[in-house]
Amino acid sequence: MFGIFMECWVSLKLYFGNPLHGILLLLSAIYLAIAEKDLKKRIILGFLPLVVMAGFLFPVTKIVYVAVFDEGSDTYYRLLWLIPSYVVTGYALVKLIVTLENLMKKTFVLWICLAASLILIAAGGSLVYCNRYMSVAENAYHIPQNVIDICDIISPQKGSRVRAAFPSELVHFVRQYDTDIMMPYGREMIATQWDYYNPVYEVMEKPDEIKASDLTAALRESGCDYVILSSDRLIDEDITSYGYEIVGSVDKYNIYQDTTVDKEG
Amino acid sequence: MQFVLSLLSLLLWLYIVPILAGILFNFILPRDKRTVGITFILGFLVSMAVFEIVSIGAMTMVTFSAFTYCRRIYIAVMLLLDVLGVLRCVQLFKRGDNRFQCLFPGEVHASARDFMNPRADTAMFRPDYPVSSLVMWGLFFAVIVFQMVMSVVMASFDGDDAYYVVQSLQAQQVDVMNTINPYLGISTSLDIRHALAVITMWIAFIARVSGIHATIVNHVVMPIFLIPLVYLVYVEIGRILFRKRQALIPMFMLIISFLMMFGNVSIYTPATFFLMRTWQGKAMVANLVFPMIFWIFLWMMENAAALRERLKSPASLFTRREEWCGFVMLALVNMFSGMCSSMGVIFGSGLIALLTLVLLFISRNLRVLAGTFLCIIPNIIYLGVYFSIFSS
Is residue A137 in some structural domain? Predict the structure, then answer.
């Protein structure tokens, strides 16, 4: 039981990351549980968040959750979404600011306290736009421009489809742009929580140095018309000697077409 | 020209269609709740409920061109509702001396007569804000606009887009509903774990009627639409929390907007989902569905004292609009939560159960349970469909 409790505790710590917002939420809930005079607000914004947090840390909750949901361990943190955390913190801060203003009987106190609260939130938090998964959009699709350029080169005529093998770093985006491009493997091979087998992925992404003979055999077995390889990827032989030709290059990526495939077919 | 047509189409399907549906049904709301904002939320929930029924029906019963059937039936139903909505507008205008407030009586400001009337509750009227509050509103709107602009200018990476966004795009480009593996492009059976969360199909619908690529609709149009909608729900929460001092609402909203913007303390928080994965169903559950459930319960609890008196007489629970309209709204929110994520149905039900206990404690009448049971019926049907397809 103690081990499960520690797992829950770690989940809680991971959820709040930099703990200041978490501490602010906890203090707000305690403050409202004590100081709020309106019973319904006291229960909903004071006691309820504390009960949900305690329930989250209670080992039996996790045992039941993991038993009910397939990916229970991965999504357990979502129980914390049941706390109206921004409402609790926001309401408590406003209540505190107004109380201070009433004590001091000066209007400017309200502005100073508001500014201090906003600075506290900003300093204790993390600006979403500075996240490492955020970048300046290269186009309206919000996917890398080189993927779009590659897809435009290999995109089939209307009514037909092609299959192309892409390097792992591009597979998330290809079909967000063009669903006429099929792939021998996709995101399911990249996600660490799954452990699938795919013959093309095995020979194209796993080895440090690609064996051209294995790669071309796997690509043909999977019915791929194209393969996109990064120019800095190690490969023992040039695959053009296996019936492939370069039909274009975008940034560091070379686009190879299998010349043995019937283009009309 | 195409750009203008696309914009007009977005305007029609994201704003005009829901508000007209809202006007048609806003008679269920108490008079003071018939504001532009709440009418829009009601219309949005009605249109989502219609879409959920139509799309799940088309997805499970039609084999070929399922999305076309879904789209056409949805357009027909919504246009019918909107024509009726327009007729109701005309009727209200004629009855109400052609004033805007006859459509949205909740927008009325308290008059001198209301202040003199001992039976009028002036806190239920729209307030006249002091200058300091107006300044705070200005700052808050600046933050919202900033967040909307950033949602266009900045791109976020999330692996789940390879599933959800592609499902929308496949519906738009290939006319299928969840029957092609989004990662590979090969045909597959219905992926029941995600299929009932048809928010991806609604986004595909918006993409199709506007002629805009579904990926652009997901990544650009949806944040511009959803960010103000989420804050609208928080404004309504603030309106109840600060009923007696409404001048404080903008301060509350300014703090909320900062908590959202600086809430990226981990990849798990609702704020991170809100501004980085706005278009995904689970982000909508965390940021739209759960706050809506809180708002509706706060609303019902606000009337709890009055409710307690009224419930003393038998058969009063479902005859008084103030009492049952909250449960109707809750039923619509439940339908919307299922549309966003199957997780939303289960978590939403849990949250409703928790808040019902509080409502029960405050209203002290067991008949609240009847209302809660009725509003949870959509969730029971949803889970029934889920498990019937899952086991077949």
Answer: no
When scoring A8, A10, A77, A94 by the number of chain B Cβ atoms within 10 A, the one with the most, hence best to mutate, is A94
Please give the Cα distance from B372 to B130 (Å, whole number): 39
3-state secondary structure B103-151: CCHHHCECCHHHHHCCCCCHHHCECCCCHHHHHHHHHHHHHHHHHHHHH
- Host domain of residue A106: 2-130
Contact between B255 and A143 using a beta-carbon 8 Å cutoff: no
Paired strand residues for A182: A163
| CA-based nearest residue to A94, from B254, B262, B131 | B254
Nearest to B176 by CA among B58, B332, B266, B320: B58
- Quick one: pLDDT band at residue B386, thresholds 50, 70, 90? confident
**Is the per-residue pLDDT at B92 higher than 90?**
no
Total structural domains in chain A? 2
DSSP assignment of B152-184, as one string?
HHEEE--TTHHHHHHHHHHHHHH--SS-B-TTT
Q: Do A40 and B304 touch (CB under 8 A)?
A: yes
Model confidence, pTM: 0.92
- Whether A138 is covered by a domain: the verdict is no
The Cβ-side half-sphere exposure at B122, using a 13 Å CA radius, reads 13
Using a CB-CB cut-off of 8 Å, the residues of chain A touching B158 are 133
Q: Is the pLDDT of residue A210 over 70?
A: yes
In a domain, A91, yes or no: yes
The pair of structure tokens assigned to A210 is 């690609």
Whether A250 and A176 share a structural domain: yes
Closest-approach residue (CA) in chain A for B132: A111
User: How many residues make up chain B in this entry?
Assistant: 392
